[in-house]
Amino acid sequence: MRYLLIEDNSKLAGAVVERLQLDGHAVDHADTLAGADACIAVADYDLILLDIMLPDGDGRSFLERHRRAEKRTPIIVITARSAVSDRVSLLDLGADDYLTKPFDFSELEARCRAVLRRQSGAAANQKTFADTVLDSTKGEITWGDQAVALRNRELRLLEIFYNAPGQVFSKTHLMDRLFAFSDGASENAIEVYVGRLRKRLEGSGATLETVRGMGYRLVAR
User: Fold this and answer.
1) Is domain 2-120 given the CATH code 3.90.1640.10 in the classification?
2) pTM score above 0.70
3) 179 Cβ partners below 8 Å, 6+ apart?
4) Rounded CA separation 36/30 (Å)
5) What is the pLDDT of residues 129-156, one digit of tens each?
6) According to CATH, where is 1.10.10.10 located in the chain?
Protein backbone atom coordinates (compact mmCIF):
# COMPACT_ATOMS: atom_id res chain seq x y z
CA MET A 1 0.00 0.00 0.00
CA ARG A 2 1.12 3.56 -0.64
CA TYR A 3 0.52 6.12 2.09
CA LEU A 4 0.87 9.90 2.23
CA LEU A 5 1.83 11.33 5.62
CA ILE A 6 1.13 15.06 6.07
CA GLU A 7 2.93 16.07 9.28
CA ASP A 8 5.25 19.00 10.07
CA ASN A 9 6.86 17.49 13.18
CA SER A 10 9.99 16.01 11.63
CA LYS A 11 10.76 13.70 14.56
CA LEU A 12 7.26 12.22 14.64
CA ALA A 13 7.10 12.01 10.86
CA GLY A 14 10.41 10.17 10.69
CA ALA A 15 9.26 7.65 13.28
CA VAL A 16 5.92 7.05 11.53
CA VAL A 17 7.53 6.67 8.10
CA GLU A 18 10.10 4.23 9.46
CA ARG A 19 7.47 2.12 11.23
CA LEU A 20 5.16 1.93 8.20
CA GLN A 21 8.04 1.14 5.87
CA LEU A 22 9.08 -1.73 8.13
CA ASP A 23 5.56 -3.05 7.62
CA GLY A 24 6.15 -3.04 3.86
CA HIS A 25 4.26 0.12 2.92
CA ALA A 26 5.52 2.86 0.62
CA VAL A 27 5.27 6.20 2.41
CA ASP A 28 5.64 9.72 1.02
CA HIS A 29 5.97 12.56 3.49
CA ALA A 30 4.84 16.18 3.11
CA ASP A 31 5.31 18.75 5.87
CA THR A 32 3.00 21.37 4.35
CA LEU A 33 -0.37 21.47 2.60
CA ALA A 34 1.36 22.71 -0.56
CA GLY A 35 3.70 19.73 -0.45
CA ALA A 36 0.74 17.38 0.02
CA ASP A 37 -1.05 18.89 -2.98
CA ALA A 38 2.11 18.39 -5.06
CA CYS A 39 2.27 14.72 -4.07
CA ILE A 40 -1.40 14.08 -4.83
CA ALA A 41 -1.03 15.73 -8.23
CA VAL A 42 1.39 13.04 -9.40
CA ALA A 43 0.57 9.92 -7.34
CA ASP A 44 -2.40 7.88 -6.16
CA TYR A 45 -2.58 6.89 -2.50
CA ASP A 46 -4.34 4.11 -0.66
CA LEU A 47 -4.43 6.09 2.60
CA ILE A 48 -3.66 9.61 3.84
CA LEU A 49 -2.51 10.42 7.38
CA LEU A 50 -3.28 14.08 8.04
CA ASP A 51 -2.08 16.40 10.78
CA ILE A 52 -4.31 19.40 11.50
CA MET A 53 -1.92 22.20 12.50
CA LEU A 54 0.45 22.80 9.57
CA PRO A 55 2.79 25.72 8.74
CA ASP A 56 0.76 26.90 5.75
CA GLY A 57 -2.77 26.26 6.98
CA ASP A 58 -5.29 24.07 8.74
CA GLY A 59 -5.55 20.42 7.73
CA ARG A 60 -9.33 20.81 7.80
CA SER A 61 -9.14 22.85 4.59
CA PHE A 62 -7.27 19.98 2.91
CA LEU A 63 -9.89 17.52 4.15
CA GLU A 64 -12.76 19.70 2.89
CA ARG A 65 -11.18 20.21 -0.54
CA HIS A 66 -10.43 16.50 -0.82
CA ARG A 67 -14.04 15.53 -0.14
CA ARG A 68 -15.55 18.30 -2.29
CA ALA A 69 -13.51 16.90 -5.18
CA GLU A 70 -15.25 13.56 -4.47
CA LYS A 71 -11.97 11.80 -3.86
CA ARG A 72 -12.53 8.61 -1.88
CA THR A 73 -9.02 8.08 -0.55
CA PRO A 74 -9.39 7.24 3.16
CA ILE A 75 -8.06 9.89 5.54
CA ILE A 76 -7.03 9.35 9.15
CA VAL A 77 -6.60 12.63 11.00
CA ILE A 78 -3.78 12.84 13.55
CA THR A 79 -4.61 15.52 16.10
CA ALA A 80 -3.58 16.76 19.53
CA ARG A 81 -7.14 17.85 20.19
CA SER A 82 -9.05 15.32 22.27
CA ALA A 83 -12.36 17.11 22.82
CA VAL A 84 -15.40 15.20 21.60
CA SER A 85 -16.59 18.24 19.61
CA ASP A 86 -13.28 18.36 17.71
CA ARG A 87 -13.45 14.67 16.83
CA VAL A 88 -17.09 14.92 15.76
CA SER A 89 -16.39 17.91 13.51
CA LEU A 90 -13.50 16.06 11.81
CA LEU A 91 -15.67 13.02 11.13
CA ASP A 92 -18.45 15.24 9.80
CA LEU A 93 -15.98 16.91 7.43
CA GLY A 94 -15.19 13.52 5.92
CA ALA A 95 -12.39 11.98 7.99
CA ASP A 96 -12.58 8.19 8.09
CA ASP A 97 -10.96 7.99 11.52
CA TYR A 98 -8.81 10.00 13.90
CA LEU A 99 -5.91 9.36 16.22
CA THR A 100 -5.05 11.56 19.19
CA LYS A 101 -1.43 12.47 19.91
CA PRO A 102 0.53 10.93 21.52
CA PHE A 103 -0.34 7.50 20.13
CA ASP A 104 1.07 4.01 20.07
CA PHE A 105 2.35 2.78 16.71
CA SER A 106 0.47 -0.50 17.06
CA GLU A 107 -2.79 1.46 17.33
CA LEU A 108 -1.87 3.49 14.25
CA GLU A 109 -1.25 0.30 12.27
CA ALA A 110 -4.50 -1.25 13.51
CA ARG A 111 -6.53 1.84 12.57
CA CYS A 112 -4.92 1.87 9.11
CA ARG A 113 -5.88 -1.77 8.61
CA ALA A 114 -9.44 -1.13 9.81
CA VAL A 115 -9.95 1.87 7.50
CA LEU A 116 -8.57 -0.02 4.51
CA ARG A 117 -10.85 -2.98 5.29
CA ARG A 118 -13.88 -0.70 5.30
CA GLN A 119 -12.73 0.87 2.06
CA SER A 120 -12.54 -2.52 0.34
CA GLY A 121 -15.75 -3.78 1.94
CA ALA A 122 -13.92 -6.56 3.80
CA ALA A 123 -14.80 -7.54 7.35
CA ALA A 124 -11.48 -9.22 8.18
CA ASN A 125 -7.80 -9.11 7.32
CA GLN A 126 -8.12 -12.29 5.26
CA LYS A 127 -8.76 -12.54 1.52
CA THR A 128 -9.45 -15.76 -0.34
CA PHE A 129 -8.86 -16.81 -3.94
CA ALA A 130 -9.05 -20.31 -5.43
CA ASP A 131 -7.82 -22.58 -2.61
CA THR A 132 -5.65 -19.90 -0.95
CA VAL A 133 -6.14 -17.55 1.99
CA LEU A 134 -4.03 -14.39 2.28
CA ASP A 135 -3.77 -13.22 5.88
CA SER A 136 -2.46 -9.64 6.06
CA THR A 137 -2.14 -9.67 9.86
CA LYS A 138 -0.04 -12.83 9.99
CA GLY A 139 1.80 -11.97 6.78
CA GLU A 140 1.27 -15.38 5.22
CA ILE A 141 -0.63 -17.24 2.55
CA THR A 142 -2.10 -20.66 3.19
CA TRP A 143 -3.76 -23.51 1.31
CA GLY A 144 -4.55 -26.94 2.65
CA ASP A 145 -2.00 -27.62 5.37
CA GLN A 146 0.60 -25.38 3.71
CA ALA A 147 1.52 -21.98 5.19
CA VAL A 148 4.02 -19.71 3.45
CA ALA A 149 5.44 -16.63 5.19
CA LEU A 150 5.72 -13.48 3.08
CA ARG A 151 8.20 -10.65 3.38
CA ASN A 152 6.57 -7.29 3.93
CA ARG A 153 6.80 -5.93 0.40
CA GLU A 154 5.81 -9.29 -1.06
CA LEU A 155 2.71 -9.15 1.14
CA ARG A 156 1.82 -5.63 0.01
CA LEU A 157 2.19 -6.55 -3.65
CA LEU A 158 0.09 -9.69 -3.27
CA GLU A 159 -2.61 -7.67 -1.47
CA ILE A 160 -3.01 -5.56 -4.62
CA PHE A 161 -3.74 -8.65 -6.69
CA TYR A 162 -6.02 -10.25 -4.09
CA ASN A 163 -8.08 -7.06 -3.86
CA ALA A 164 -8.91 -7.41 -7.58
CA PRO A 165 -8.51 -11.00 -8.86
CA GLY A 166 -8.34 -11.22 -12.64
CA GLN A 167 -7.60 -7.53 -13.10
CA VAL A 168 -4.48 -6.71 -15.09
CA PHE A 169 -2.02 -4.39 -13.36
CA SER A 170 0.73 -2.72 -15.36
CA LYS A 171 4.27 -2.47 -14.04
CA THR A 172 3.85 1.30 -13.87
CA HIS A 173 0.73 1.01 -11.73
CA LEU A 174 2.37 -1.52 -9.41
CA MET A 175 5.43 0.72 -9.09
CA ASP A 176 3.18 3.61 -8.08
CA ARG A 177 1.40 1.50 -5.45
CA LEU A 178 4.46 -0.25 -4.02
CA PHE A 179 7.22 2.37 -3.92
CA ALA A 180 7.53 5.91 -2.57
CA PHE A 181 9.30 8.77 -4.37
CA SER A 182 12.36 8.26 -2.17
CA ASP A 183 12.74 4.54 -2.96
CA GLY A 184 14.34 5.06 -6.37
CA ALA A 185 13.19 1.65 -7.63
CA SER A 186 12.83 0.63 -11.28
CA GLU A 187 10.26 -1.56 -13.02
CA ASN A 188 12.76 -4.41 -12.82
CA ALA A 189 11.94 -4.55 -9.11
CA ILE A 190 8.35 -5.51 -9.98
CA GLU A 191 9.60 -8.39 -12.11
CA VAL A 192 11.75 -9.58 -9.22
CA TYR A 193 8.86 -9.48 -6.72
CA VAL A 194 6.44 -11.16 -9.11
CA GLY A 195 9.00 -13.93 -9.64
CA ARG A 196 9.33 -14.40 -5.89
CA LEU A 197 5.58 -14.54 -5.41
CA ARG A 198 5.19 -17.15 -8.13
CA LYS A 199 7.62 -19.34 -6.22
CA ARG A 200 5.72 -18.71 -2.98
CA LEU A 201 2.49 -19.82 -4.70
CA GLU A 202 3.92 -23.02 -6.19
CA GLY A 203 1.66 -25.94 -5.30
CA SER A 204 -1.40 -23.73 -4.72
CA GLY A 205 -4.39 -23.14 -6.96
CA ALA A 206 -3.38 -19.52 -7.65
CA THR A 207 -0.63 -17.87 -9.65
CA LEU A 208 0.37 -14.54 -11.18
CA GLU A 209 -0.01 -14.60 -14.94
CA THR A 210 1.88 -12.36 -17.36
CA VAL A 211 -0.32 -10.58 -19.88
CA ARG A 212 2.12 -9.69 -22.61
CA GLY A 213 2.52 -5.98 -23.16
CA MET A 214 0.08 -5.15 -20.36
CA GLY A 215 1.23 -6.49 -16.99
CA TYR A 216 0.19 -9.16 -14.51
CA ARG A 217 -2.99 -10.60 -13.02
CA LEU A 218 -4.01 -13.09 -10.36
CA VAL A 219 -5.58 -16.22 -11.87
CA ALA A 220 -6.54 -19.74 -10.85
CA ARG A 221 -4.34 -22.47 -12.28
Assistant:
1) no
2) yes
3) 2, 26, 185, 189
4) 5
5) 999 999 988 999 999 999 999 999 999 9
6) 126-220
